[in-house]
Amino acid sequence: MTDHPDIATDILAGLDAEQRQAATTLNGPLCILAGAGTGKTRAITHRIAHGVQTGVYDPHRTLALTFTARAAAEMRTRLRDLGTHGVQARTFHSAALRQLQYFWPQAVGGAVPELVDHKVNMLAEAARRLRTTTDRAALRDLAGEIEWAKVSMRTPDSYAAAAAGREMPTGWDANGVARLFQGYEDVKTDRNLIDFEDVLLIMVGILETEPKIAAQVRDQYRVFIVDEYQDVSPLQHRLLDLWLGGRNELCVVGDASQTIYSFTGATSRFLLDFRQEHSDATMVKLVRDYRSTPEIVDLANRLLSERTRQRVPVPGPDGVRGSMPRWAEPLELVSQRDHGPAPVFAECSDDEAEAGWIAAQVKQLLDEGIQAAEIAVLFRTNGQSQAFESAFAAAGIGYQLRGGERFFSRREIRDGILQLRAAARSAQDVSGDQVPGRVKDVLASLGYTEAAPQASGATREKWESLNALVALSEELATTRGDQFTLTDLVAELDERAASQHAPTVQGVTLASLHSAKGLEWDAVFLVGLSEGLMPISFADTQEDIDEERRLLYVGITRARLRLFLTWTLSRGTGGRSTRKPSRFLDSLDPEADSRHGAQSQGRRRPGTAGTSGSGARGSGRKRAHPAQCRSCGTLLETGAERKTGRCLDCPPTYDEGLFENLKAWRLSTSQEASMPAFVVFTDATLVAIAEAAPKTPAELLRIAGVGKSKLEKYGEDVLELVNGTPTA
Asked: Which intervals hold domain HRDC (predicted)?
């Protein structure tokens, strides 16, 4: 046991009851069912740190596994911040590759074959050998199909039978894919190459046939923690079993409702069957959502509750997806945050109008104080990004395309790290809160300035990259204290470069829903929610539709404070309105019923600010009667208009001085609490307060956007501002 029990106690401080149960269950099999935003990474890193500090775990014999290099790097950073060193946090592939490189000379002999990063060139060669021609798009699809076969532990001989019922790449049948699969394997053998799936397969073979090597590996690692367990493939599960060697020191964490990679061979079967595999397992459910407001959490819960029991693809006994579905009860999340704005639903005439409307909303969010890096636009397919790239460029909004050029490959970042390394080697190395200032001085030679340039394009992108290094140095100087040096920063950057764990870049994120898994933002736009895109057109089975539902669920739960859901009636400007809103919106959009039986026109009132052909509405309760402007009698369309009781065309009827005082108070209050200004009150709510000029708490509570919680927090200050005297 540790000589400092107070350290172990400090590690547990701040955990909720369920997180604490997970963190203190240190022995035997443990399954943590963790909903989105419930602090699963916090729970498992504190569990590891608690186990090490109490002497239950040897950090050098503890292996934490996850599915992306970024997630592994995040876990290592958190463990380091908890004072826990020596624990290995790796992806399955990284851990297996390290072992393979070490044991290859002993198990096989000679040099380890070179690793193939991309399969397309090898597949093109295999196709030529078979006298078959195909384009690169089809080759990418074929590469994905071969990856599915290998992680499902299928050989070219067994592929055709296993793939019965699977959708084949265009122009190919199962037998043709099997022949290409064999040709691909032959090309690799001829060139002494292996791919990423081979790394796992070869290690499985070595551990199954080399008892001495298996014993060495099992002696090295005694405790295993597996994150995102719903994404484990049959091959990864087999490797994990061999690493364990019949022992039960295993903690798994996952959520079947976030299974979105079935097409790659991932399955939640192993998560759902964990209790069957380990009859003595402890089960812990994390359902307290610390990420999203109650309004967003309610939307996510409703999306899943439409299927009171959720279908998930289940492999048969041989590890192949079977024909019978498995039902899984989704976790019902409970938000721990204050109430926020209602999610907004917007129907747009076409893709260009949708992108333009979203650009306008982003501008408004930026004006309200939300940083660009805290805003994301998420779409189903990468091809949808172009319209938003064009709209943001036209509006002067910086953006970053997730999946584009890697951060550490940018020239200014490579040059910046070289300059920082040189500065760290010199006598000018500094520590603590002096590090950020030194970083700014060093990067100034590359064009960094304290203030962002007014220019857009490449100049702004370069500044954003360098500013990300500055921001990282400030963050680390704060968390690591006086001992943090410039040398430590360079080491951190080297480690992040190796794992592609990029720091935050200021710019609105454009990303696919799949690539957004594991990330979160203050404001999220879920776009293109039309039939054929969500669910995607080729989702033609119930299992496929259920996976699309889970994908939308993942998108919803990325948002902390603001959520926008949009769809279009046609693809091109002036096109026929042939698109229909996604079926998933039927249970989410409070005005969905009004769309059925009549074609939506996507009109806007002449003279209204906004994008032509688009409209937006909040998802609050339906009005018994349409709200009208108190000045001109026009029907009110948006939540902001209904809050103030007048349309945007009519002049305000409040005291401008009072409104400015309320805004100044809001800014000061938000800065003291380190949160965006709109979280205190939105502009629309401040306008409504200024127009209503409430004299009592009861009158203030009647204003939309206030609520009991905010009345308790801010009511006294607001009423004092409105009435000019204390309300006591």
From this structure: 652-728
